[in-house]
Amino acid sequence: MVNAGKQLITGLGVLLLLAVLSTSCYAMDYPDEVELDSLADLYEPVVFDHAMHVDVTENCSECHHHTTGTGVANEYCAKCHTGDVEMDVVACQDCHSADPVSIENLRNPQPGYSYHNDQPSLKAAYHLKCLGCHQNVDGPTGCEDCHAKTEAGDKFYRSGEFAPKEPAHSSAH
Amino acid sequence: MSKITRRKFLAGSAAGGAAMMMTPAKKAFAAGSFEGFPDGMGVLVDLTRCVGCRTCEAACNVEQKLPEPALPFDDTSVFDEMHHGQKRRTTDKAYTIVNRYEPKSADEPLYRKIQCNHCNEPACLTSCFVNAYKKTPEGAVIYNSKVCVGCRNCMIACPFHIPAYTYSSVLNPVIKKCIFCYDTRLKEGRPPACVESCPQQVMTFGKRKDLMVIAHERIKKNPGKYVDHVYGEKEVGGTGWFYLSNVPFEEAGFDVNLPKKPIIDNVKDFLAIVPMVLTIWPALFTGFHLLATKGKSHGHGDDNSHDKQEGH
Ligand code: SF4
Ligand code: SF4
Ligand code: SF4
C-alpha cells in the first residue's frame, strides 16, 4: 500500500513536471548511464550509455514501447495503447522479469494481461532490442563488443586460457 | 497366443526373422492415439532470434559434464565445417550443436540449434527392442544406458538423426543424446541449461500446449515475419521442441517430407531397408538364437501381451 501510494505520488509528480515543462520525452528525467549486470557472471557488467542512445534514437518508443508517452512503435500494441501517457513503469526491469520461468512462476502463473503473455526475460529483452537494432544500423554485434568476458566466462566457453589444447595433428595458425 | 516372457519373445523373434524384431513398436501406447502427456513441458524455438553465439552449446557441455570440445565454444569457424558433405550433427560429445544456413529467401544467414526434439511418440523409443527409452510425463525422452545394447536401431529410426553412440567402450557402446536436462533440471520443473543460457531467448520453456498457443500468436502478431507453420506441431505426431522460422523450413535444413503420423507404424519397413540393420542383425540373431531354448518357434507373436506387463 505504501509503495503504491508512493508510486502514485511519483507518477503524479512526473505528470505535473511534464505539464509544467510541456515538452517532449527529452525533457523527461532519465539516467545518463545504466549499469546492466544481469549476466555479470560470465561477462563484466555493461555500462549502457543511455544519453548517447537518446541522442541517436528518434523516438523513445523504439525501446520503451508505449510507456514513455512518446507514441507507440509497434502496431500490435497500438490496438490497446495510444502511447500518449507516460507510465509509472518505464525501466526494462520493471516489466521484464529476470527469471520468468522460475518454478514459482510456472506453477502459479500470474494472471497477467492476455496480450502480455509472451514477454521475453530481462536478459532477452536487452539482447533482442540491442542486437536487433545494431544489426540494422551496423552497430556492434559481437558478444565482446559490448561486454568483456570474465574468467568464469572463459572457463564456460573454453576460451582464452581455458581453450582446448591444440590437437597434435592440426597445423598451427 | 498367451502371455510370453521377454526372453521367450526375443527367442521367438529370432526365429521369426528380422522384421519380427521390430514389432514391440506398439508397446507404450497405441499408434496415433497418443498426443503427449497433457502437462508435458516443451520448448518453442524461434529461429529468427538466433545469432549463432553457441552459448547454448557451452551450457549443455557444462550441464551434461561432456568432454572438452575440439575448439572453444566462441569459435565460429565450426559453422564452415563439413563432415562427409554434411553440416555438423549431434554427437556423443555434443548433445546440441548450432549450424549456419544461407537461406535463399533471406539476406541474412540463419542459425539453427539442433538437439533431440523430444517427440510425443518417439521413433527411438518404439524402435528399441530392449525398452531402453522412456517418455516421461514431464515431456523428456530419456534412456537407460545400462539397458542399451548398442544396436543402433534408434539411431536409424530417429527422423532427426539425433542419437549418437559412444565407442569409449568397444564391447558396450551406448547411446548418448540430449535428455532435456531431465535429471538435473526438468524433473524439478526448471528449464534446461541451454534454454536458460541463451541471451536471445531463442527458446521459450513452458507447457507444450501453452507454447503452441504462443507460437501461433507470434505468427499472427507479427504479420510478414514468420512463415505460417509451426514445425513440430504435427510432424511425426508432434514434437516437444518445435520451431518458428522466417524462411521456408527446408531452407533451414529441416526435413519437410516427414509424415504427420508418428513413425511408429513405418519404423519396421523403414528399418528393414537399411543396410546397417542387415549387417548387424545376423550376428545378433545368432546370439539370441544360441540363447533361445531349443525347439521353440513362435513365428509371428503378439507383442501386445508382452507389452502390457511392461512397467514403465
Ligand atoms: S528426436 Fe529422435 S531421439 Fe529425440 S525423441 Fe524424437 S525420435 Fe527420439
Ligand atoms: S536440454 Fe539439456 S541435454 Fe538437451 S541440449 Fe539442452 S542443455 Fe543439452
Ligand atoms: S545461445 Fe541462443 S542465440 Fe546463441 S547460438 Fe544458442 S540458440 Fe542461438
Question: What can you tell me about this protein's structure?
Answer:
Chain A is mainly alpha-helical. Helix content of chain A is 41%, strand content 5%. A two-stranded antiparallel sheet of chain A has the order 1-2. The longest helix of chain A is centred in the N-terminal third of the chain and has 20 residues, at 2-21. With 312 residues, chain B is an alpha+beta fold. Chain B folds into two domains: 1-24 and 279-302, no CATH class; 29-271, Alpha-Beta Plaits, CATH 3.30.70.20. Helices cover 26% and strands 12% of the residues of chain B. Chain B has helices spanning 6-16, 18-21, 55-63, 123-127, 153-157, 193-197, 208-221, 267-272, 275-291, 303-308; strands at residues 41-46, 97-101, 110-114, 133-135, 141-143, 164-166, 174-176, 203-207, 241-244. A three-stranded mixed beta sheet of chain B has the order 8-1-9. In chain B, helix 1 (6-16) packs across helix 9 (275-291). Chain B is globular and about 55 Å long. The two termini of chain B are 23 Å apart. Classes of the chains: A mainly alpha (173), B alpha+beta (312). Chains A and B meet through helix 6 and helix 7 of A and helix 3, strand 8 and helix 7 of B. The structure holds iron/sulfur cluster (3 copies). One iron/sulfur cluster (SF4) is lined by residues 116-119, 122-124, 141, 158, 160, 162-163, 177 of chain B. Chain A: Heme c 1 binds at residues 50, 53, 60, 63-65, 130, 134, 143, 146-147. Chain A: Its cofactor is heme c. Chain A: Heme c 2 binds at residue 80.
Query: Oligomeric state of the chains?
Result: heterodimer
What's the architecture of the largest domain in chain A, going by CATH? Alpha-Beta Complex
Under CATH, the topology of the largest domain in chain A is which?
Cytochrome C3
| Biggest protein-protein contact in the assembly | A-B, 26 and 34 residues
What's the count of strands of chain B?
A: 9
What structural class should be given to the helix and strand makeup of chain B? alpha+beta
Let me know the average pLDDT of chain B: 80
- Helical content of chain A (DSSP H or I, runs of 4+): 40-55%
**N-to-C SSE series of chain B?**
HHEHEEHEEHEEHEHEHHH
Content of β-strand of chain B: 5-15%
Shape of chain B: globular
- CATH homologous superfamily identity of the largest domain in chain A: Cytochrome C3
Output the strand order for the largest sheet of chain A: 1-2
Compressed to H and E, one letter per element, the order of chain A equals: HEEHHHHHHHH
Number of strands of chain A: 2
When the domains of chain A are counted, the total is 2
Mean pLDDT of chain A: 78
Q: Give the CATH level 1 class of the largest domain in chain B.
A: Alpha Beta
Query: Structural class per helix/strand content of chain A?
Result: mainly alpha
| Low-pLDDT runs of chain B | 1-33, 267-279, 293-312
GO molecular function (chain A): electron transfer activity; heme binding; metal ion binding
Keywords (chain A): Electron transport, Heme, Iron, Metal-binding, Signal, Transport
Protein name (chain A): Class III cytochrome C family
Binding site for heme c 4 (chain A): 133
